[in-house]
Amino acid sequence: MKQLFLGNAAVARGAYEAGVRVVSSYPGTPSTEITEEMVRYSEVDVEWAPNEKVAAEVAVGASLANGRAMSCMKHVGLNVMADPVFTASYLAPPGGLVFCVADDPGMHSSQNEQDSRHYAKAAKIMMLEPSDAEECRDFARDAFELSEKFHTPVFLRLSTRVSHSQGLVEPGEVQVHVPGPYVKNAQRVAVPVNSRKMHVEVEKRTKEEVCFAENCAYNRIENHGSRIGVITSGISYMYAREALGDQVNYLKLGIVYPLPEKLIRSFAAQCECVYVIEELDPFLEEHCRALGVDVRGKELFTPIGEYNADMISRVVLGRPLAEHVQPLETRLPARPPVMCAGCPHRGVFYVLAKLGLHVAGDIGCYTLGANAPLNSMDFNLCMGASIGTAFGMVKAQGREFGKKVVSVIGDSTFIHSGITGLIDIVYNQGNNTILILDNSTTGMTGHQDNPTTGRTIRGIPTRQVDLELLCKAVGVTRVKIVDPFDVELMEKTLREELEADEPSVIISQRPCALLKSVRYQGKFRVTEDCRKCRRCMKLGCPAITCRNGVVSIDPLQCVGCGLCEHVCPFGAMVREENT
Q: Which of 293, 330, 400, 413 would be 288's cystine partner, CB 3.0–4.6 Å?
């Protein structure tokens, strides 16, 4: 019986049906739910790794030991795991090995747009791209077979709309995949003398994959007798079908690397005009042009952001998708993202703004500290980069500048890739101050556990990384733990540590307000003692508003955290239970 599956859940189901044995990932939207859904299947060994590189290494190791393995990440996570992935392509792991990467056209939750198809070409790894939930299940299941058939890792490329849309899927039979005995093979030691031989095999393998792509079920022609042809893949195929229906012919590519040659030439020869419809980079288009096929692509379609059916209809058919639909007369008000009511990061950024410091930011909920009214983040780069970039600032401006610069980084992000930056500062005798914002979870991707929470992905208690001891172990002698809602102590501690002529770490420790374990008693209201100083408005709390000079607290949004009480100099913020 068919069931409604999220695209990511369908990927998990497909992997489970294929007999996957090990899944190791790091959370990253829009890929996170694949690994979360794997927890449903008790037979599978599932884990959150400290970062994507480690996750890939665990999956590769499982595959080398004949187990079927998978690792999932978002597009920028693929950058982190690129080192082991490129060499895994050479090692020809015997167990099915699948890397699921979810791109984010439109940057709904990412710092850049990135087309992961380039990684497939650069690493010479086969890449499948499903268009809907049913294909997510089918392609994920088949990817393991293809991996073992061609002795290669296989990429499964998703996008936000495929990952987070739902569709009907009929669950299939589950294979029981028992790993064969491990056989030692010294030829897999990636030293130059072996790697040269491996590279020859990789090139041979790629030619075999091209032949397979010419006649496989993943690449298909849909001939509707039209003079117009469309070459497409993934979610772009769904947009094109919605916009153009049966008015054009389609070459729907399920394998986007390596790409067929004869199939593309044959399809184009049947059409007078061929469009290549693909989000982000002209990956398919460039392949077509290299084959000498005349196509229309990015000169008509944008390389920026997401596509939609109306855009495609306007370009190909010269008319909007639905001419009778009138645009809205009034623009809807913007709703920029803000830190949640009760967010523990708010107190930190309130103090940073008050002191007028330069703040090197990182990836997480706290990136929202850049928004008004806090306005207290200068830039961010990538996971874990806040520590290294701040050190570079001090190197450029001099040690005195270090008294005006701080790094902010979350507990999960610090474990992910911030530790090495801290080691660099200690080793090279810097004087930077680092704020680790420990909210007891991996917040922005949906509250996943990490090595600092003391629980595995299945909620099983485990060893908990002690951030204070970890910082001291790498050579930091000045480590302070502060409640971010104690704004006076936070300001005092920051001033002291910024004056120190050695590295220092402040651990801002308070759990995320959205965790089920966090329960504040009573909500706040504003009393007649309010002097309209508007200091509370500088917090940027969504529960606090000021209309016509009158400050009020929305009881529907207030969680009772009490930060406003700490900030108000007149005691005008009062908890309801105390009045």
A: 293
In degrees and rounded to multiples of 5, residue 47 shows phi and psi of: -150, 150
Claim to verify: residue 46 and residue 143 sit in the same structural domain: yes
- We report the CATH number of the domain holding residue 286 as 3.40.50.920
Q: Phi and psi dihedrals of 361, rounded to 5?
A: -95, 175
Does the pLDDT of residue 575 top 90, yes or no?
yes
User: Is-contact 187 197, C-beta < 8 A?
Assistant: yes
Q: For residues 439 and 572, state if they share a domain.
A: no
In a shared domain, residues 497 and 377:
yes
Task: Give yes or no: residues 176 and 58 share one domain.
Answer: yes
Structure tokens at 164: 């987070």
Mean pLDDT of the chain: 95
Q: In the predicted model, what is the mean pLDDT of residues 228-253? A: 97
In one-letter notation, the amino acid at residue 156 is L
Does a structural domain hold residue 322?
Answer: no
Q: Which of 162, 189, 214 is the last residue of a domain?
A: 214
Are 49 and 172 in a shared domain?
A: yes
Characterize 325-347 residue by residue with b for buried, 16 or more Cβ atoms within 10 angstroms of its Cβ, and e for exposed: eeeeeeeeeeeeeebbbbbbbbb
Whole-number Å distance between alpha carbons of 39 and 401: 48
Q: Is residue 76 part of a domain?
A: yes
pTM, entire model = 0.93
Tell me which of 509, 534, 552 is where a domain ends: 509
Helix 262-269 with 192-215: angle, nearest 10 deg: 30
What pairing do the DSSP bridges indicate for beta strands 433-438 and 405-410? parallel
CA distance linking residue 380 with residue 514, whole number of Å: 25
Residues 268, 198, single domain; the answer is no
User: Looking at residue 381, which CATH number applies to its domain?
Assistant: 3.40.50.970
Tell me how many domains the chain contains: 4
Residue owning tokens 């010269």: 318
- Quick one: tokens of 145? 């077979």
Could you give the CA distance from residue 107 to residue 125 in angstroms, rounded to a whole number? 25
Alpha-carbon distance 420 to 452, whole Å?
Answer: 17
pLDDT in tens, 513-526: 999 899 998 999 99
Q: pLDDT tens-digit profile of 276-329? A: 999 999 999 999 999 999 999 999 999 999 999 999 999 999 998 876 556 666
Task: Output the pLDDT for position 447.
Answer: 93
Return d(Cα 256, Cα 125) in angstroms, integer.
Answer: 10
Q: How many CB atoms within 10 Å of residue 65?
A: 18
Co-location of 81 and 120 in the same domain: yes
Contact at 8 Å (CB) between 137 and 169?
A: yes
Task: Decide if 59 contacts 22 (C-beta within 8 A).
Answer: yes
> 5-16: b or e for each residue (b if 16 or more CB lie within 10 Å)?
bbbbbbbbbbbb
Whether the pLDDT of residue 480 is over 70: the answer is yes
Domain extent, residue 235, equals 219-316
Tell me, yes or no, whether 534 lies in a domain.
Answer: yes
pLDDT recorded at residue 579: 41
Nearest to 482 by CA among 375, 351, 353: 351
Phi–psi pair at 237, nearest 5 degrees: -65, -40
| Burial class (CB within 10 angstroms; exposed 0-12, middle 13-18, buried 19+) of 151 | middle
DSSP state of 418: I
**For residue 482, is it within any domain?**
yes
- Identify whether residues 19 and 159 lie together within a single domain: yes
